[in-house]
Amino acid sequence: MPLSQLIISLQIHPSKTSFIQRLMRILINSGFIATKNNINNDDNEVEYLLTDSSMLLLKNNPLSMTPFVLLSLDPVMIKPWHQLSTWLMKNDCDGDRDRMPFETEHGIILWDYASRVPKLNLLFNDVTARDAQLVSSLLLGDEKWKEVFEGLESLVDVGGGTGTMTMAIAKSFPKMSCVVFDLPHVVAGFQGNDENLKYVGGNMFEAIPPCDAILLKWILHDWNDKECMNILMKCKEAITKKGKKGKVIIIDMVVDDEDNNNKKDDEVETQLFFDMLMMVEVGGKERSKKESIHLTNDATFRHTANSGHPCPEPLK
Ligand SMILES: C[S@@+](CC[C@H](N)C(=O)[O-])C[C@H]1O[C@@H](n2cnc3c(N)ncnc32)[C@H](O)[C@@H]1O
User: Is-catalytic flag, 221?
Assistant: First the structure.
């Protein structure tokens, strides 16, 4: 739409028109807005168009990234960044873990904060649900990856949020019994179906319900190596409780240190930004392939053929 129409739609005061024009200029430069070449409206006004990036910010787009942007820009998440210098200059260890800038700012970890502030809990859950929608459609839409779930009788989605991912898996595999396992304040009020989906509240550092397979999507990147080891050991307990050899399916981004040296593309920038986000907000990290392999090797897991990692011995 042309600027005049935009001003009306956004209910901008006419005295602020020139400011909107300047905002639009930077949005064009950053690729969030495009302009139409053929100007054929009566006033010869430039017309603005959405781009692929701004489409992802539309409220009615099922893959909308708006909740992620709102969360990232919320003062609760921004303030810890201002603590970085203070945090870097002092030793602030609490047992096995360093207190992260989020704790320097708020005095508690993000998950405890979310349990006390419903607005943040809702926003955070919305962010993970949108991402789960995108990832589940990719994962379950591709036979190569879908195969990972074939033959499983039960699956627990540990830290599964409000269950978007698990719901999609349960629908694709109606014979598999699926559990969304997350902190009590996250799953409170959610109900499964009578067939193959249920919600369980708990703490993954204490005990995980027994099952054939565990899904850890965006979980290990939230924690340091020692904490990941504790989570993986709890997973191991859960998948071997029934006397079976189960498996853990890990979905996390892979930062490739070696390739990154020569690459400056958006993908690498996003990975490195997420790594900083993990450092500041939760005390985790985005890992390279090597680091992830170390972690799972240390927890004495074998890699399966379709894991995307080298397979030391084929899964029998
Ligand atoms: C980054 S989110 C990932 C959510 C979901 N797996 C996804 O990818 O959409 C991390 C999740 O771990 C959960 N979580 C944090 N600490 C936990 C704990 N001790 N036990 C179980 N879940 C936990 C959080 O509540 C949150 O839902």
Answer: yes
Residue whose CA is at the smallest distance from ligand 1 atom 19: 203
Question: Do 118 and 8 have their domain in common?
Answer: no
Give the range of the structural domain holding residue 245, as residue numbers without chain letter.
66-307
Alpha-carbon dihedral of residues 131, 227, 280, 158, nearest 10 degrees? 20
- The rounded distance, in Å, linking the Cα atoms of 47 and 36 is 5
Claim to verify: residue 155 and residue 252 sit in the same structural domain? yes
Q: How far does the centroid of ligand 1 lie from the alpha carbon of residue 138, in Å? A: 21
Identify which of 96-110, 142-156, 163-177, 236-250 has the greatest average pLDDT.
Answer: 163-177
Q: Which residues contact 256 (CB under 8 A, 6 or more apart)?
A: 288, 289
C-alpha span between 239 and 164 (Å, rounded)? 22
Q: CA-to-CA distance for 160 and 185, rounded, in angstroms?
A: 13
- Helices 289-298 and 225-240 pack at an angle, to 10 degrees, of 50
- The pLDDT tens digits of the residues spanning 149-204 come to 999 999 999 999 999 999 999 999 999 999 999 999 999 999 999 899 999 999 99
* Cα of 6 from ligand 1 centre, angstroms: 39
Distance in angstroms between the alpha carbons of the first and the last residue of the chain: 60
Could you give the CA distance from residue 233 to residue 231 in angstroms, rounded to a whole number? 5
Neighbours of 192 (CB within 10 A): 19
- Averaged pLDDT, 236-264: 82
Which residues does a 6 A CB cutoff place in the pocket of ligand 1? 111, 128, 131-132, 159-161, 165, 182-183, 186, 203-205, 217-219, 222
User: Does a structural domain hold residue 312?
Assistant: no
Selecting among 221, 294, 303, 309, the annotated active-site residue is: 221
Same domain, 138 and 92: yes
One-letter amino acid for residue 98 of the chain: D
**CATH number reported for the structural domain that contains residue 210 in this entry:** 3.40.50.150
pLDDT digits (tens, 9 = 90+) for 28-37: 999 999 998 6
Residue 243 lies in a domain: yes
Is 48 in the same domain as 86?
no
